């Protein structure tokens, strides 16, 4: 049913130019000409409008946008002596940030046009080949029809992909480009210009001034990601097993109690936790009233204590999710195998260790890897609970509990070091990619899944 | 477990059950405590953010009245609520449309760029979303949209194109034979999509729509960057969050908890309704 068309032999564009008639030849210069010549008016019009529009844009803005990409602006905002007037006048200056953004957008537009140009040539070639084989050339109506059939994927995907292009790819390219500039708090447009600096930011983060912040934060990010994922998983499995113990009544009620906590939006539950755990908060007050402690426990204000608190609070959030998922797996376990094991004299722990747990692990592995990556990027828990604090004077722009992502956020919003933030974003990406690749090649569930 | 005497199984079982019940009860208390505490606080009449006891001394509904009437004018909760509703309904419609068409195309249709695209999507998803946050803000500013609700709708919906995994996993499980037999009967792909696949896909459409609907109620970081200081265009999440800044955290705490309760109720109900899809999504969609 799904034959691959790519195996068909086509003539090259060079041959098309040599052998083709005038319409085909002109198609190389005037897009859509061959379509017009063969009564595919709508298609030809689309190509032609695209080309004319592109040339018009190129002359008006495009060339300037592309040219400015080299320097990212040369005119600084400020007072400049105007010899005509004989006095200083305010010069508007270039905005490096906008120049970079427009430059990248211009490159994307050029890429889109190149793609269209190739599509245009392919279309001309297609018509040429149909003619050579004495077949009917599809009319506009046929073309529109094929959008609902052979080319239905184009109909479905064009709008979503435009969204991806403008709101995912363009911003990403922009931020990646920023990593190679000196766009920091000293070079903020529109007041100042920034320019290309090559790999300077990367060396700064890995071996330079920022390394003394980067590596501790990276270390804590990794510890946090592993501990948070593993602890939530193990305790979630235990909870699911407890609820599914034979003879326990109201299983559904128990489950609902825990699922209820999952449903509360995180920004609410975490802000409340921050309040509960405050030095002057209810939990400390309660413990003092009972007389267990005389001084407040610094749940969120002591660096080590804060890290432990974060992991424990994260259990509150993560355990129900694991419980919910593993319950389904436990209920579908092969009961005969377990009964056979009991017959052979295995105790409950042995059954768990050798039968139940490995099966749960097998099904959960892909989602565990995703959780691990999710935890590397877990913004909410840290930001809402401690805000990265307590402050650490040894770090640049980060607190003791900051993860790479929250640090990235601080760098963009507070200290305005966009270049460093971009470098860290890229490094986070590399980290996630390495984990995923490793998981992809080393785990059984992926291989068999 | 090599005991000589026959064990009293009944007694042992009973003891085990008692232990399990105890653990479950303690855990349930720990898990429910913060939620109960929010609700109690929203009815508390006296004190500020921190009081050294759990159960309020005086109960009142004034916190809710204060929240809904917004006497100070700085925290227009009703307005935020309407904003969020507009954004989430529009996002819901657009995202569902986008996610379902993307996942259907990538699951059921075969075309040249399919595999490369799946790989590119995987790579794009690995960049932290915050990295491009600032750039998105400037793009919206260049389009003269920053600070408007339309901007939020655009950003949330555009993100939907790369969250097709769960729905794709669902479409993958519908037998291809259905499509083939329809094709033999002369249906084109559009007809197969609308007349055969979509009616079968109600659960995944509901799931996609509800997730998209819930997003704007919970996200506060993107919304905050896009909205800046424009308080009247805030969504509920940023609005409530802004009530907890250092200067107002103490005086507005009970009002804040009242807002939390009002938001948490609908979200919780929706979530309870769709939890079974959630499980399917995590365990099946993840692998492929």
TrEMBL record, chain A:
Residue spans crossing the bilayer: 41-59, 97-119, 155-180, 222-244, 256-277, 308-330, 351-373, 418-440
Location of the ABC transmembrane type-1 domain: 218-439
Location in the cell: Cell membrane
Coiled-coil zones: none
CDD domains the UniProt entry points to: TM_PBP2
Pfam family for this entry, one: BPD_transp_1
Single Gene Ontology MF annotation: ABC-type maltose transporter activity
Topology in the lipid bilayer: Multi-pass membrane protein
Protein family membership: Belongs to the binding-protein-dependent transport system permease family. MalFG subfamily.
Purpose of the protein: Part of the ABC transporter complex MalEFGK involved in maltose/maltodextrin import. Probably responsible for the translocation of the substrate across the membrane.
Protein name: Maltose/maltodextrin transport system permease protein
TrEMBL record, chain B:
ABC transmembrane type-1 domain residues: 81-274
Compartments (UniProt record): Cell membrane
The keyword Membrane appears for this protein: yes
Lineage: Bacteria, Bacillati, Bacillota, Bacilli, Lactobacillales
SUPFAM superfamilies referenced in this protein's UniProt entry, alphabetically: MetI-like
Pfam families xrefs: BPD_transp_1
Record protein name field: Sugar ABC transporter permease
Family according to the record: Belongs to the binding-protein-dependent transport system permease family. MalFG subfamily.
Keyword flag Thylakoid: no
Organism: Companilactobacillus suantsaicola
Primary location class: membrane
Keyword set, alphabetical order: Cell membrane, Membrane, Sugar transport, Transmembrane, Transmembrane helix, Transport
């Amino acid at each position: 049913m799904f034959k691959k068309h790519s195996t068909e032999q086509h003539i090259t564009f060079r041959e098309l130019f040599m052998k083709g008639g005038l319409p085909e030849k002109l198609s190389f210069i005037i897009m859509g000409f061959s379509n017009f010549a063969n009564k595919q008016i709508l298609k030809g019009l689309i190509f032609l409008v695209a080309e004319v529009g592109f040339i018009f844009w190129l002359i008006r803005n495009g060339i300037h946008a592309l040219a400015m990409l080299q320097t990212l602006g040369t005119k600084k905002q400020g007072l400049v002596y105007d010899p005509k007037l004989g006095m200083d006048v305010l010069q508007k200056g270039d905005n490096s940030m906008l120049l970079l953004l427009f430059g990248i957008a211009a490159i994307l537009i050029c890429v889109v046009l190149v793609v269209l140009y190739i599509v245009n040539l392919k279309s001309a070639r297609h018509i040429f080949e149909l003619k050579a084989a004495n077949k009917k050339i599809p009319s506009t109506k046929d073309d529109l029809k094929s959008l609902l059939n052979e080319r239905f994927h184009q109909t479905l995907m064009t709008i979503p992909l435009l969204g991806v292009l403008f709101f995912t790819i363009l911003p990403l390219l922009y931020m990646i480009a920023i990593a190679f500039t000196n766009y920091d708090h000293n070079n903020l447009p529109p007041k100042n210009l920034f320019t290309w600096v090559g790999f300077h930011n990367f060396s700064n983060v890995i071996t330079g001034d920022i390394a003394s912040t980067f590596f501790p934060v990276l270390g804590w990010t990794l510890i946090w990601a592993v501990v948070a994922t593993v602890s939530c998983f193990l305790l979630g499995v235990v909870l699911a097993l407890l609820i599914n113990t034979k003879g326990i009544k109201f299983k559904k009620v128990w489950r609902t109690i825990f699922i209820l906590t999952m449903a509360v939006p995180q920004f609410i539950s975490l802000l409340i936790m921050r309040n509960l755990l405050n030095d002057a908060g209810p939990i400390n007050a309660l413990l003092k009233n009972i007389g267990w402690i005389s001084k407040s426990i610094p749940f969120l204000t002591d660096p080590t204590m804060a890290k432990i608190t974060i992991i424990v609070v994260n259990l509150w959030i993560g355990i129900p999710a694991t419980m919910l998922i593993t319950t389904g797996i436990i209920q579908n376990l092969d009961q005969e195998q377990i009964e056979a094991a009991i017959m052979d004299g295995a105790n409950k722990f042995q059954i768990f260790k050798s039968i139940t747990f490995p099966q749960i692990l097998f099904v959960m592995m892909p989602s565990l890897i995703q959780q691990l990556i999710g935890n590397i990027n877990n913004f909410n828990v840290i930001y809402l609970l401690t805000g990265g604090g307590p402050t650490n004077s040894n770090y640049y722009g980060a607190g003791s509990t900051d993860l790479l992502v929250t640090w990235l956020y601080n760098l963009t919003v507070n200290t305005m070091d966009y270049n460093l933030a971009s470098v860290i974003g890229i490094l986070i990406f590399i980290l996630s990619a390495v984990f995923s690749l490793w998981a992809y090649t080393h785990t059984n569930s992926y291989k068999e899944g | 477990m090599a005991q000589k005497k026959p064990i009293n199984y009944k007694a042992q079982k009973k003891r085990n059950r008692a232990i399990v019940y105890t653990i479950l009860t303690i855990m349930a208390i720990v898990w429910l405590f913060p939620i109960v505490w929010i609700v109690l606080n929203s009815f508390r009449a006296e004190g500020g953010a921190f009081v050294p006891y759990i159960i309020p001394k005086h109960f009142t509904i004034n916190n809710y009245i204060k929240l809904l009437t917004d006497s100070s004018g700085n925290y227009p909760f009703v307005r935020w609520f309407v904003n969020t509703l507009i954004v989430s309904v529009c996002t819901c419609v657009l995202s569902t449309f986008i996610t379902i068409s993307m996942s259907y195309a990538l699951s059921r249709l075969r075309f040249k760029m399919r595999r490369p695209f799946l790989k590119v999507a995987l790579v794009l998803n690995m960049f932290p979303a915050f990295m491009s946050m600032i750039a998105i803000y400037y793009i919206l500013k260049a389009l003269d949209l920053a600070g408007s609700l339309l901007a939020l709708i655009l950003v949330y919906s555009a993100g939907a194109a790369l969250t097709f995994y769960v729905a794709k996993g669902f479409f993958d499980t519908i037998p291809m034979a259905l499509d083939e037999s329809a094709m033999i009967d002369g249906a084109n792909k559009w007809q197969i999509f609308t007349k055969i696949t979509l009616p079968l896909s109600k659960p995944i459409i509901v799931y996609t729509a509800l997730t998209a609907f819930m997003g704007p109620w919970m996200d506060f970081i993107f919304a905050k960057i896009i909205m800046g200081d424009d308080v009247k265009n805030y969504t509920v999440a940023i609005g409530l969050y802004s009530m907890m800044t250092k200067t107002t955290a103490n005086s507005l705490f009970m009002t804040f908890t009242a807002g939390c309760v009002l938001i948490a109720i609908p979200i919780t109900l929706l979530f309870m309704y769709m939890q079974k899809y959630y499980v399917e999504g995590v365990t099946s969609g993840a692998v492929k």
